TrEMBL record:
Its main location: mitochondrion. This is NADH-ubiquinone oxidoreductase chain 2. Residues 290-342 form the NADH dehydrogenase subunit 2 C-terminal domain. It is a multi-pass membrane protein. It catalyses: a ubiquinone + NADH + 5 H(+)(in) = a ubiquinol + NAD(+) + 4 H(+)(out). It comes from Pomatorhinus superciliaris forresti. The keyword Transmembrane applies.
Length: 346
């Protein structure tokens, strides 16, 4: 793929995201989502591998179905209320269909089956876009319509996402699939609190995007996508492997790392909303995903010698990328000292 084509697709992604997050009309939001879908498809299928073509096809069919459901829910709400404003979603059936459409776009359970397969067939840089930037417009729509959504339905979907994200990631050996199930598990934390404190959902998404970007960029630098390859990186790049270890522990939500901050605030808010049972349940289910985070961290720090020449080639890295990763890692780990100030601003 040429540089000009990548520039056009990147500008299209920026345009689609900007249109969706800044619009008040359902048709404009739908148009932005469609621009995003059409712009990311060539980036998924740019390797021309059959698995990449399959991933692009699955992504297109899923996103097209979700966009059709979203437009149908907006039309149904406009038919009964005469309003096309995003914040004026009041019809119960339209709210239910919209929740399903946004859950399908995000990969929230039980509409999560497409996400690990698409991430597995995509390059690491495209997988980073799918896990972070492409989730921002649906998250924005979820925040804007959160007063109208059913909190009980979102709670059940959140608990199911956390359970499946942790359970299905236990026996995976492909790092992209592990990170996909990690994303599904984190989406559960975002969905359970969106009706009670949308700012906490946004904070969780921002921190998750920062930490996940660090992990993907580090994996892209050392050119690894499997656990067996990850186990041979410590000997050549111990500093980068150490940063990856700390970032994975932060992504797991272990205190005192930054990833623990949104979970701490969400559990606190759920307790204030008399949802101690839901807070306990989702906290215990998140321990399932802790296993594969620790396994990734262990594989990043053990020392195994390389067995082939290909592994030696994968270790050649450039210092600007490693410098950027160092900055992102420091930021994603050292944010926790500001946590006493956050509850006063939310």
């Amino acid at each position: 793929m040429t540089t000009q084509a990548k520039l056009v697709f990147s500008l299209s992604l920026t345009l689609g995201t900007t249109i969706t997050i800044s619009s008040n009309h359902w048709v404009m939001a739908w148009a932005g989502l469609e621009i995003n879908t059409l712009a990311i498809l060539p980036l998924i299928a740019k390797s021309h591998h059959p698995r990449a073509i399959e991933a692009a096809t699955k992504y297109f069919l899923t996103q097209a179905t979700a966009s059709a459901l979203l437009l149908f829910s907006a039309m149904m709400n406009a038919w009964y209320t005469g309003q096309w404003d995003i914040t004026q979603l009041t019809h119960p059936a339209a709210c239910l269909i919209l929740t399903s459409a946004i859950a399908m776009k995000l990969g929230l359970a039980p509409f999560h089956f497409w996400f690990p397969e698409v991430l597995q067939g995509s390059p690491l840089t495209t997988a980073l876009l799918l896990s972070t930037i492409m989730k921002f417009p649906p998250i924005t729509l979820l925040l804007m319509t959160s007063p109208s959504l059913n909190p009980t339905l979102l709670t059940y979907m959140a608990i199911l996402s956390t359970a499946l994200g942790g359970w299905m990631g236990l026996n995976q050996t492909q790092i992209r699939k592990i990170l996909a199930f990690s994303s599904i598990s984190h989406l559960g934390w975002m969905a359970i609190i969106v009706c009670y404190s949308p700012k906490l959902t946004l904070l969780n998404f921002y921190l998750y995007s920062l930490i996940t970007a660090t992990v993907f960029l580090a994996l892209n630098t050392i050119k690894t996508s499997k656990l067996s390859t990850l186990m041979t990186t410590w000997t050549k790049t111990p500093a980068l492997s150490t940063m990856l270890l700390l970032t994975l522990l932060s992504l797991a939500g272990l205190p005192p790392f930054t990833g623990f901050l949104p979970k701490w605030l969400i559990i606190q808010e759920l307790t204030k909303q008399s949802m101690a049972v839901a807070a306990t349940t989702i906290s215990l289910l998140s321990l399932l995903s802790l296993f594969f985070y620790l396994r990734l961290a262990y594989c990043a720090t053990i020392t195994l010698p390389p067995h082939t020449t290909n592994h030696m080639k994968q270790w050649h890295t450039n210092s600007p990328t490693r410098s950027a990763i160092a900055i992102l890692t420091t930021t994603s780990i050292m944010l926790l000292p500001i946590s006493p100030l956050i509850p006063t601003t939310i």
